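Progress report, Aim 2. The chain analyzed during this reporting quarter is listed below.
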Amino acid sequence: MENIGIPTVWIDHVAYKKQKHKQCAFSLYIAAMCKIATPVLAKAFDEYQFAAEIEMWGQKILKATISKYWDSAKKVFVCKKTWIREENELRYCDRSLAMAVLYGLNPLKNDLFSIHILADKLKELGLSYSANANWRYWALAKGKRMDIILNEFRTIWYPSPSV
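Predicted C-alpha cells for the chain:
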C-alpha cells in the first residue's frame, strides 16, 4: 500500500493499475474487520469496552470510506473516484465491491449495482488474480448469482491447467 500510515502488504497486483487504487478495498476490509470480526472476538474474552471502541472506530473508517469512494448516483464504491479527473478513467475493483456486499457496507445495504458489476465483469472492473477470485464468488453467491459462479467454474476453472 502507499503511505497509509501503517505497514501493510497487499498481495494482489492484477486488479489495480496503481498502488493508491487499493485504498478503497483496504479501507472496506478494515471497516469490516473492526465492525464485525474483532468485536465478536473481544466479547469472547470479556473485553466489552474494547469491542465497543473498535466497533466505533470501524464505523468511522466506513463513514470516511463512503465519503471518499461512494458514488451516490451509481450506488457503488468506485476505487478510483478520487482520481477520476486526474486519470480520466472510471474504475471499480472486485475486492471493494465484494467486501461491501459480503459485510453489508454499502449504504442502505443496496448491493444491486455491485452484484451487477461483479456478475457482468464490466470493462471498468479490475479483477484480482486467481488466488483472490474467491472474494468475488462469495459476493456473487450472497447476491444469488450462482449461475455466474457455476458457468465460470465449468468454462474457466475446470479446463484451466493446474497452478
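Strands lie at 70-71, 76-77, 92-93, 125-126. The first strand starts at residue 70 and ends at 71. These observations will guide the mutagenesis work planned for the next reporting period.
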